[in-house]
Amino acid sequence: MPLIVIAEDEFLLADVLSIMLEDAGYEVASASHGKAALTLVKQKLPALVITDFMMPLMTGLELAQAMRADATLSSIPIVLVSGAQGSIGRAHPEVFDAVLDKPYREKTLIATVAGLIGNR
Amino acid sequence: MTQALARLQTGVPGLDAVLGGGLVIGASYILQGHPGAGKTIFANQIAFKTAEKGSKALYVTLLAETHERLFQALGTLEFFDISRLGIDVTYVSVFQTLRDEGLSAVVKLIRQEIARQGATLLVFDGLLNARDRADTQLDVKTFVAEVQSQAAFVGCTVLFLTSSRIAEESPEHTMVDGVIDLHNELSGVRAVRRLQVKKSRGTAALGGHHQFEITSDGVAVFPRVEALLAHTSVPDHAPTGSVSSGTGGFDALVGGGLPEGSVSLVFGPSGSGKTSLGINFLSLATQEQPALHFGFYETPARLRGKAAALGVDFEGLIKNGALEMIWNPMTENLLDKLGHRLLDAVRERGVKRLLIDGLGGFERGAVYQPRMVEFFAALTNELRALNVTTITTWELRDLFGPTVTAPGSEISSLLDNLVMLRHVEIGSRYKRTVSVLKVRDRAFEPIIHEIGFGPGGMEVRAALELVAGAATGLAQGPA
Q1: 3-state DSSP assignment of residue B92
Q2: What's the N-to-C CA distance of chain B in angstroms?
Q3: What span, in angstroms and rounded, lies between the C-alpha atoms of A105 and B189?
Q4: What is each CA distance from B243 to B316, B318, B353, in whole angstroms?
Q5: Which of B66, B86, B109 lies nearest to residue A56, judging by beta carbons?
Q6: Where are the beta strands (DSSP E) in chain A?
Q7: Which of A34, A113, B335, B455 is an S-S bond match for B365, by CB 3.0 to 4.6 Å?
């Protein structure tokens, strides 16, 4: 079962996202801000990371940039889910493999995740 | 020597005046009110206005509601700018941190976030949730104390948002520098929003209730006129000039024109000529001495038509800037909003000639009637200080009859000049009459005169024949 790390400060969104991914057959670990997520990613070396943009201590962009700069993490696919900052994410195609605007559809999300994990 | 505290302008119209200049920089405030009272809109408006001025705002929530839903709701408001999100207005949720690690971890996280963002404004939404989580009252007290002292160290102003279930004697109230209370309550069948500054440390705020409204422009506060203008905004003076009324023969009745900078009340029943007198008064508007029609009854379109029928070109006066017409439909008005709208319009164009048609429009807008005397006192004092010559109207309820109900006697005494218009029945004929009852500090003509309409509109004609009881409209034959 592939492991996915979620970086999301809003617990409702983190919870819903976890449930959707678990239902789709993934294992999920979540962190409530970017810094905690980076620690988690280093520990678990997940198959994929889903991150929010606006979070305490480290934004989703900073998290993705830190991962890309780290040789052991740089190949992990990263999906940005964001309402307002989707355009910032799209301006950084070198760090994000996909950008989903909130609110997103469950189907779209699962298809995106499956596509990225299957590619590797 | 007293020292003025540095202020953060809130960008909420009227709020800075209520707060005595704005929020004190580095101070902390509780913004409280029941759900729906407007706390979130207040706080977000202040956050976005802070960002517009080049500073950064940090919005920390402990709420179950997602930020996305908040943004959807805020998206309908003018001040909300989605392009600032995550750049100079940042929203972070600390709910999970609180749940997993407790209040002290939240404090630490907030401290790091303020520094990371370089925030000068911190909004903490959900103090009540923090209380639910705290094991003792001491925990929240410590939490508030720690957040505010850390913020103060970096000059960051703090707004704690909470539903108003925190008692006044609670430690949170004791510790913060200010408490702003928001209310949404029913008055009769209408809803009225009110704001009250319950605590304001080291600075004089305007006490009591102030009405506010929330529109697509965001929040606007209307400080109570009599509180804001307890003293006039400019020193009063004693002008000695006269201003023509524009109605032929009328100036002679009041001793050579209306005293400059005076407030006159023209009262009479419907159809007695109040509007015509007003139209004549406004017809003398010039670009140098601009005029304002502030009305409640007739729409500008109808008034332009009426003026045209009397040979007065309002259209032209409006076009060249000599005249402005502001119509306030007699629907659900807010008294202080009306007062500020009037004074703002007067100040903006340097209005010297003002017609208020009529005082009843203000009275209907008052939620709390007993304050009308203080309201009118502040309003008329300010108009005099601004050297505006004002005519106001008052409609008498009865076309005829012995009772002449002028606005409350206390209000009449605030007015400089009193003029009565009546229909008088003499020998089965109705005659329109005018009588001057009072002109401040000036001799006037105490004889009732007839009025009529000539090519130049309404004009004062000969003295009325000698009858008794003309003032009631019920003449009783030769006196």
Answers
A1: strand
A2: 70
A3: 43
A4: 22, 20, 9
A5: B109
A6: 3-7, 27-31, 48-51, 78-82, 98-101
A7: B335
Higher pLDDT, B427 or B205: B205
- Report the C-alpha gap between B153 and B189 in whole angstroms: 48
Q: Which domain holds residue A91?
A: 1-10+52-76+83-108
A26: left (phi over 0), alpha (psi -120 to 50) or beta: beta
Is it true that domain B7-223 has CATH number 3.40.50.300?
yes
Chain B, nearest residue to A54 by Cα: B86
Q: How many domains does chain A have?
A: 1
Any A CB within 8 A of B63 CB: no
B59 in reach of chain A (CB within 8 A):
no
- Give CA–CA dist B2/B206, Å, rounded: 19
- A27 strand-pairing partners: A3
- Nearest-angstrom CA–CA distance, B50 and B130: 26
Give the whole-angstrom CA distance, residue B26 versus residue B9. Answer: 13
Domain B242-472, architecture per CATH: 3-Layer(aba) Sandwich (3.40)
- Please tell me the pTM assigned to this model: 0.89
B367 pLDDT tier (thresholds 50, 70, 90): confident
Interface test with B, best of A33, A61, A63 (most B CBs within 10 A): A33
Residue B128 to residue B140: CA distance in whole angstroms: 9
CB contact under 8 A, B116 and A9: no
